[in-house]
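Weekly structure sync, notes
Attendees: PL (lead), two postdocs, one rotation student
Agenda item 3: pending single-chain targets
PL asked that the sequence for the first pending target be pasted directly into the notes so everyone works from the same version. It is reproduced below exactly as submitted, 498 residues in total.
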Amino acid sequence: MTEALDVVDAGVELGPSPDRVIATLFLPGESTPGGSSRTEGVLERVMATPPDEIATHAQAILERFADRHADFAATLAANAAVVRALDAPTLPEDLALLVGAVFTAEQSVEGAALCNPSAVAHPDQRDLPAGARRVLLSLRSIGESHRSTVQFAEAVVGPGRTWAFAPRAAPLRQPAVTAGEWTRSHLLRALEHDGHTDELVRSLGQSLPERFDGAAVEAAVRELRAPFMHASSARAQVDAIRIVAGSAYRAEFPEGSPVSARVLVPVADEERQGLEDARFVRFVDDDGAVDYRGTVTAFDGRTIASRLITTPDFRVITVSRLTGPPARTKGMALFPRRVGGRMLALARGDGESISITRSDDGLHWEAEVRLHRPDRLWDAVQSGNCGSPIETPDGWLVLTHGVGPMRVYRIGAILLDLDDPSVVVGVLPGPLLEPAHDGAAGYVPNVVYSCGGIVHDGILWIPHGVADDRVRVASVPLEPLIAAMRPPGGRRTHTAAP
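Predicted structure, written out during the meeting:
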């Protein structure tokens, strides 16, 4: 670590809990590569259960699993309705529970690891002692098959140089999901972003209103003229339209549900292998409106892309599709306000350098301009951001990560000009945090990684993943850190060419 900086570990740790589980629909056979669904045969065997045994089996299932899940009986009944034939009569309650249980599986959302937190000031700052501040953290939880979800945790920082995690609530709560909203121009940009610009797409755009949801897209697809639907590429184009339309959605958690019990699971087709590394920031617009925004990486098992999350309260969450060159990669991080009337974000389109991009609406992002390229041994492989820039009187503080020999991840920092963030005014000479010799082992060895820190009472707090396995917290006084980043004589370092 950089000499003379008072970097202190908070002495607290948040580790994965395999008993944090959700109940998900399970279709036998479909989880086996190359397999086919065995739903019909399994359903027939369950329906053949002797009537005098059904209530006993249903009761045993409830006794064993109900306390592990919220609204467990309703979840089983809903899954039974999914697999029941459309023309079949309504099932008796106990039989519906039994059928639902056969087509339900528990998934441990953090059975493998818990890592990569971002931190923002909690929306609720009530009932705290003087000098304390409540913090809300997003967490990447990794479960079976390396599938990632987004969870949340709470902590209190201060008074003084203290950090305390609050116990996380259970059972976990999943949101009700509905179709997201689009504008016509946004959908057409998203389709063009994915390379879909033929006559079928143009005809679809002409039939849509200015604002609509995913259901309207499906209705417009059904109304497309026959000549378009008979084209050789029609099926692929229609599938692509449906996938893009489904990438925007609204997730609403139950009123009164504890924020630390909420889990945002993959919903859209392009997220089916996970939602990774959410980077949240409290965003204040020019008119004074405040909400929380974050980027998250959607992963379908082959490709990655950045998505936008917006929420006023972390209960009602909107997920939107981003377009433009920076959205094709992972790790975008939003600035907490507009600069010069435009929204800004950090990105890494070339896979190895930190860059900056601009947007008018927060959805479509321009080509990037490089800010900082890896030029030291400890970040020789690549460099990237560790969350949204933090505004200080001296400039925008950006926590960075670098990858060096033996794929060791370390955390560093750069400083950007307040008025023109495309100008780098300071670079920390060496790493701020690095894996401890006795703490480098884990799910992915030799990694420290953060998705966003927070400043409180002159102290920078850096919650970070350790070995992609668990979460710890470090702190460093802000003023000495800024001073260590300033070049001799205050020389300004201009950005590299794009």
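Discussion points:
- The radius of gyration is 25 Å.
- The chain has three domains: 8-17+111-173+261-490, 22-108, 181-245.
Action: rotation student to compare against the earlier draft before next sync.
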